[in-house]
Amino acid sequence: MSTLSKRWQEYKSSPKYFDSKSRLQNGAKNSVLSLFRFILIVGISYVILAPVIGIVSNSFFSRQDSINPMVFTIPINPTLERYTMAIKHLNYLPVLGNTLLYVIGVTLIQLLVCSMVGYGFARYKFPGKGLLFGCVVVMIVVPLQSIRFPLYMAFRYFDPLGLVTLFTGAPTSELMSSPGPTVIMSALGCGLRSGLYIYIFNQFFRGLPKEIEEAALVDGAGTYYTYARIMMPNATPAVITVAVFSLVWQYNDSFFSATFNIPDSILITRKLDGLVAVIANAEKIMTLREQQLYFDAGVVLVLVPVVIIYLILQRSFIEGVERSGIVG
After folding, report:
1. What is the C-alpha to C-alpha distance for residues 265 and 91, in angstroms, rounded to an integer?
2. What is the distance between the alpha carbons of residues 86 and 294, in angstroms, rounded to a whole number?
3. Is the domain of 146 the same as that of 279?
4. Domain check: are 277 and 165 in the same one?
5. Domain check: are 36 and 119 in the same one?
6. Is residue 295 part of a domain?
7. How many domains is the chain partitioned into structurally?
8. Of 239, 241, 270, whose CA–CA distance to 255 is shortest?
9. Can you give the residue range of the structural domain that contains 208?
10. Of the residues 10, 55, 254, 261, which has the maximum number of CB atoms within 10 A of its CB?
11. Cα angle, residue 71 at apex, residues 65 and 75 outer, rounded to 5°
12. Which helix (H) or strand (E) holds 20?
């Protein structure tokens, strides 16, 4: 046996050979897993983003591009005409301003009410606590469609304890076709997704150490002072999480807005529903394909504020979701 063969046999029987072989196998395994993970992420991202990419792309299509079967995704003659007409017929800036004012107002009410209720459930013991928290869970799991008619009747003939008739002389108050019902429900802790927000705050406050409140109590702080000046500043991740959820869901709400007939001058998503009909009548555009392009431009305009809000609050939002115990 030659010297080279002897050295090779000695190397194969040495621990160094097995370590090198193990590292090579682990490297190959990690490379395969990384490739599989990359393919999976790209596939899922495509399924989620493909419709959005298609809408954004179509919004720049010209009439020639829309009728050319060779054009796909990337327009040959891009145009901003769709956005110009959509902004005009949506009355975009005034209606968006009204929408943001309404949405932010309801969000602030929900933050105040739901945080107080969640704090109460997390820190205090009182009779019926379990039953009331069970009602909160029911608010999360019960479909809104099942209570649509009772909600409509409650606010169509809204006269609690006969007070409206007593002070105004009218048989009922006129709350329909206004944001009044959603504001009242949010202030009473039963607005859109309020059950989920209460649960988030409850989970977050339960995770904070009680020593913080005990130290405040020793210093002479009362309940409301402790809640407002000590607990809420420490609950910033939960506040941002609920704020993002509430802003997005109120902004995109179609259930309460349709049930209470909120005017499209207040909620831009309702204005978007009638965009195609308005443009078809005003601009005499009867081609369904071209009407869809204008609608796509309107969708992009409506999406932009939500995307901007999420990009600004992304890091704090993800942290709040993780710390609130609702991951997955």
Report:
1. 9
2. 6
3. yes
4. yes
5. no
6. yes
7. 2
8. 270
9. 83-323
10. 55
11. 60
12. helix 15-58
Is the separation of the CB atoms in 117 and 201 below 8 Å?
A: yes
- What CATH number does the domain containing 140 carry? 1.10.3720.10
Are residues 13 and 160 located together in one domain of the fold?
Answer: no
Instruction: List, as own/partner pairs, every contact residues 226-232 make where C-beta atoms lie below 8 angstroms and the sequence separation is at least 24, other chains included.
Output: 227/116, 227/119, 231/119, 231/205, 232/115
Within 10 Å of residue 278's Cβ, how many Cβ atoms?
A: 16
Same domain, 232 and 309: yes
pLDDT tens for each residue of 267-321: 998 888 888 888 888 878 778 888 888 899 999 999 999 888 888 877 776 766 6
pLDDT tops 80 at residue 89: yes
- CB-based contact 232:243 (threshold 8 Å): no
Amino acid in position 301: L
Domain shared by 196 and 306, yes or no: yes
Amino acid symbol at 58: N
pLDDT computed for residue 186 by the predictor: 92
213-255 pLDDT, tens digit each:
878 888 777 788 888 888 888 888 889 889 989 999 999 888 8
Report pLDDT for 171: 57
User: Residue 284: phi, psi to the nearest 5?
Assistant: 55, 45
CB 247 within 8 A of CB 103: yes
Helix or strand or coil: residue 107?
helix
Residues 6+ apart with CB under 8 A from 93: 87
pLDDT computed for residue 16 by the predictor: 55
Tell me, yes or no, whether 27 and 87 share the same domain: no
State the chain's mean pLDDT as an integer: 83
Residue 62 lies in a domain: no
Is this structure's pTM higher than 0.90? no
Q: State how far the Cα of 189 lies from the Cα of 113, in Å rounded to an integer.
A: 6
| Coil/strand/helix, residue 286 | coil
